Amino acid sequence: MQRGMTGRYEITNIAGERIRAFVPHPLPPHPPLELNDQRQRLLERATLALGRLDSVTLLLPDPGLFLYAYVRREAVLSSQIEGTQSSLAQLLLFELEEAPGVPVDDVVEVSNYVAALNHGLERLKEGFPLSNRLIREMHAILLSRGRGSEKSPGEFRRSQNWIGGTRPGNAHFVPPPPQHVEECMAALEHFLYDEGNPYPALIKAALVHVQFETIHPFLDGNGRIGRLLIAFILHHDQVLAQPLLYLSLYLKQHRAEYYRLLDLVRTDGDWEAWVDFFLEGVELTASNAVETARRLVSLFQQDEQKIQTLGRVASTVLRVFRTLCERPLVTLNQVCERTGLSFPAAAKAMGALERLGIVREITGQRRNRVFAYQEYLTILSEGTEPL
Higher model confidence: residue 74 or residue 212? Predict the structure, then answer.
């Protein structure tokens, strides 16, 4: 539907240049979204796919295991969209404090993302509302170290930012002037609290994501926080027991269309085109996540069967193997801590896993060796190749 502009332009002067900054109208859209039969079917398919994703935890021996791995995969993908080049393996190596030589700058950003996400999860578990305060807390952690740490972590911006171009005067898009950020975010928070929101959680998440990206309330990190908000809304509104829906791979693969549709909402008021794109992405992403979980369960079962052929030592090797199911990159010291095995026993069991082709040592060193559950990493890393 062509509603016309979903905001107004405010003319300001920056460094002698005349700037048109966009101030969005509060949500919900007016007139209301057109939920025709086709869009209702998209919503139903996306909702069913989320239901399958929510029940995927029943397949897994430890649901936390999948969340641990999937969160890190998402951190890599979401950060790649912002230009970092870290791989999943590099992030996991970085998290092993004993593993030297990992390139730091990009991986620190990805590690911060994991920490911000985990902080948000803990706060929601405590009963803290999904609110501007929580968004700011997560942002403070996201920019706590490395690039962007000088750009007011945890604070809404007090200066003008822009998207594309080298300055506001030649930018592709200029978000609201700083004096409007607080009021825009307060209106968004009201909508998050369901005040005046007639839509189900999935559509609410779609609308909030665009509005947040349009306001661009921080000097840096807006894209990553905006993508996290989607998963957090679905978790907070009890659509998903765990925040397992992450759209970064879908958005990475369709970047040009994603940006085109954001512009279309702002200039033409075509929320429906964006919602259709979003719902298709939710269905595809949720279905892919379920398939990934099934492949991991199948992999674990096949490798356990290989281990069972080892006879007397199988029980010890299984203990080490299950540590690798929890953390696909480990050192022998970590294995000892997690299993209670002695170092020689852990080393012997890891050697058995190497001979079975389940793990491989990736440092080539004699000391501080790191072992990778390679097939597990391969499955998780699909689509995370740097842009």
Answer: 212
Q: Does the pLDDT at position 383 exceed 70? A: yes
Residue indicated by tokens 């842009």:
387
Question: How far from 109 is each of 68, 102, 104, 231, 253, CA to CA, in Å?
Answer: 17, 13, 9, 19, 21
pLDDT value for 105: 66
The Cα–Cα gap between 307 and 319 comes to 11
- Structural tokens at position 247: 């759209």
Please tell me what DSSP assigns to residue 15.
Answer: T
Report the alpha-carbon distance of residue 338 to residue 14 in Å, rounded.
57
Domains, the chain, with CATH or none: 7-291 (1.10.3290.10), 309-381 (1.10.10.10)
- The kind and range of the H/E element at 145 are none
Contacts of 174 (CB under 8 A, 6+ apart): 19, 20, 21, 22, 160, 162, 163, 168
DSSP E strand boundaries for the chain: 7-14, 17-24, 329-331, 359-361, 370-373
Cβ atoms 83, 105 nearer than 8 A? no
Instruction: Label the pairing between strands 7-14 and 17-24.
Output: antiparallel
Give the tens place of pLDDT for each residue, 152-173. Answer: 999 999 999 999 999 999 999 9
pLDDT in the model for residue 87? 78
